[in-house]
Amino acid sequence: MPIPMTVEGEESLRSELQQRKGALRQEITQDIAVAREHGDLKENAEYHAAREQQSFNEGRIQEIESKLADAQVIDISKIPPGDKVLFGVFVTLLDVDTDQKTRYKIVGEDEADLKAGKISVMSPIARALIGKRVGDAVLVVTPGGEREYEIDQVAHS
Description:
Elements: E1 3-6, H1 7-36, H2 45-69, E2 71-74, E3 90-95, E4 101-107, E5 118-120, H3 124-129, E6 137-142, E7 145-155
């Protein structure tokens, strides 16, 4: 199944992959070699920690490679601007109850960062917004209950 991601998300994963395969992998290998020099491996905490770190790093490399292989990179700059909510756009929402405005960018799962205003396309709010237009009212079911928003603005940047 294709994994949607933005151009920035793909670049970020490729950068992480390069760092993990290069510098981090070498650093871990050095840590293992140093720990081996300390003697008995059965009771060598440094050695076990370094091996655990190596295992985690190799697992993450496989995970990133898999995601990149299945990636469907969506470049929003190649889609004409409009008032429809799509993957990769910025959406400004007006909370109907509080009149508070919130701005989100709809991104892939790996890119989601609520503090940075990036929500996963798989989140309840993004799923409720996709396909709607400016002025539409949207009812979002969240763990805290139902919230009603009005789509105030859609922007590509």
